[in-house]
Amino acid sequence: MMSDVTFIQVGDLANGFEHASHLVSRSDELAGRTFKLYFKEKQPMRLALLPGELLHFNSYEYLSYRCTSIRESIYFIDFLDPDNPRGTITIILDVSLNLVTLIYGQLPTADQVSVSAFSRIKQNVSLTDVDVCILFGTAKILTTDDQLHHFTDELIGYRNQYIYSSTEKYEHIYLNENFYAWHCIEGVEKGLADVDRCHYIKISEKLYLFIWREKIVPTLGVILIDMKLLRTDGKILGYQEEDFKALTNFQVGSYAKILHSIV
What we know:
With 263 residues, the chain is mainly beta. It contains three helices and 18 strands.
């Protein structure tokens, strides 16, 4: 008889991923550059990237950040939200086309997480309180003719395997426009699986931004999936421990394999 598998905190997940992980190397190619980001019905935002992995964002200065590039001229920039102790900001910046997607991510409070799934169903609200706000814009003055990053259904129907390290292996099944299934084949979550809320965004040809929001242990994933290079790069955000006091916001990267597709 198999023993029950149990969900773990994101801090424990980060510990499992840290050994011999297949991370994309950090990039300093944008150091010294300043961008003005434009979004519909928003004030322009200022982003200045400094040497030494520090940046200025709007009125905030000297924030620590991480920048990587999975494909030429496209950058994944990630840092803690200075306005929100439970949040992060992720910016996908295409400097060749002057296109940008910005994601505000926010974890729920302990009180929010304590509400049962049945109560949520009765209230007709989402099963997860992990929240995201997704903005599409440009790194130049926005016009009505701009072809922005956008939501897509191009990943739906794929079943992919992701090898994050010598010990961590997962599979995803992209079910429909709102949900995907994940399953840990090997690693600290071996045997665990679930279906969670997700969002798919097309960044470039065969390059997708995949965002998921877990409902059991509050977790936010923001990942670039390159279906041409079969490579991923991104981050996972959650609480370090079950006391909800400290965040863990760690980089992940993997080699991908397409197992099946109904497309």
